[in-house]
Amino acid sequence: MVPCDRLPVDTRARIVGRRAAVAVVVVAQLLLIARGYSSAHKEFAFQMFPESSTWRADVVRVTDDDRRVPVSEPWSGYRWEDLVTSRGLQTPWMRHHADAGVDNQLAFLGAALQWVADHTPRDHQTRYLEATVTYWHNLDAPTTVVLRSHDRNGPP
């Protein structure tokens, strides 16, 4: 075996180039893995055995007079099922499997609350939307969190 420093310049450059390319690929993969596990949506963080968590939410519209009206009832010509159509969010009041984990599902539900608050201009009664979410992480005891959209009367 010939030491690298005794090879012709062309060959030495290719060896160093290959090593640098491998190092860049490995570092990039490690960064994507770290990003995936720290993100709510877990991009680039495949898990062979994902969690088997479930969740359900009571989503309400809090009106200007402090009434709490379930979004399962139509309002101002809107229906929750028509506004929010993905990730099991059409019927949040039913218990669902958390497709890619509880954090992922909570992030989607929080975004849905904000989106509905921003895209219902005919609704002049709702101050904000609120979801009381109960989730069961794997088979642990239930945990409850409250998600809330921004106040529609103030700046978004």
Q: Average pLDDT, to the nearest integer?
A: 86
Helix/strand class: alpha+beta
Structurally, the number of domains stands at 2
Q: What's the count of strands? A: 5
Q: Summarize the helix and strand pattern as letters.
A: HEEHEHEE
Query: What count of helical segments does DSSP give?
Result: 3
Question: What's the layout of helices and strands?
Answer:
Blueprint: H1 9-38, E1 54-63, E2 68-70, H2 80-83, E3 96-97, H3 102-118, E4 126-136, E5 143-148
Antiparallel strand pairs: 1-2, 1-3, 1-4, 4-5
Q: Can you characterise this structure?
A:
With 156 residues, the protein is of the alpha+beta class. The protein has helices spanning 9-38, 80-83, 102-118, and strands at 54-63, 68-70, 96-97, 126-136, 143-148. Strands 1, 2, 3, 4 and 5 form a five-stranded antiparallel beta sheet that branches. A hairpin with a 6-residue loop joins strand 4 (126-136) and strand 5 (143-148). The longest helix is centred in the N-terminal third of the chain and has 30 residues, at 9-38. It is elongated.
Summarize the structure.
The protein is α+β, with helices and mostly antiparallel strands. It has helices at about 10-40, 80-85, 100-120, and strands at about 55-65, 70, 95, 125-135, 145-150. The longest helix has 30 residues, at about 10-40.
